[in-house]
Amino acid sequence: MSRNFMSLLLVSCLTVAVAICFAANVQAEIVLFTDNFDDADNSQPDNGLNQNLSTRQAGSSLGTVPWGVYNDNYGYVEVNGAINPDVMKLVGPSPVGTNVNTAVVIGHNFTDSSITTAGWFELQWDMDPTSDTSKWSCASIGLPNANGNADVTNAATGFGVLLTGTGGWYSFASGVNLGSGTYDSTPQDGEWYTFKMRVATSSFASGSSAAVDVYAGPVGGSLTLLTSQAFQWNSDGENYMGFYGYKNTSLVDNVRVTTIPEPSTLALLATGLIGLLCYARRKRK
Questions:
Q1: Which of 73, 169, 201, 273, CA to CA, is 20 to 30 A from 43?
Q2: Per-residue pLDDT tens for 21-31?
Q3: 28 φ/ψ sector (left φ>0, alpha ψ -120 to 50, else beta)
């Protein structure tokens, strides 16, 4: 076997091994939780919140996960209503000056090993916020339980984003305002947006550090980075997630929590192949 042919063979095998490594690490995401709120039975006492979960949450690796509710001063939640079908509505119609607040929390503690192993997770949702700056909606992570207050100004919240219908956003960690800006300078009534938090963390233990990127954009369009923040997980070490409305009516749809799996065994095989090729090359020399 000629020296040139042997060199070509080694290079070809090395290229294949590198390609295997790349393919092993570019993997499909794990959808831990998803809910599209479609076809819920709105006639039930919970206004459809936990109806038809097996269909609405199809594709969730966690199976069906119920929602918990936190109501302050008689706000309520409605899913698949006659006026707003196939979405979740946080309702708080109130006179000016009256605090009517409603929160819903996903009934799962997202401290899964798949998240800590991967080192990150994402919470993504579509929302039509309120159109009044004195009234707002928000999404929160790091909540202490499934029936808690998802208000981002609550000190028990790990991190959250407050959204106004006039296009403004504010970020909070443990109830402290970290920054603000605009996700749309000219929002329109009835306009839907996609929001996403991408959180990097390897532990949910008390005081552990995390970093979060927040994105936003029109539904179906590209997302723009709004802010990057660092925060620490609260002393409870829990990671429930939820949505909150303050004196308003907000619509939420297509909630997703995702991460990625560990690198597959293909990566290990490729690493071994590279090692054997290096060994063979040394022997040939």
A1: 73
A2: 444 444 578 99
A3: beta
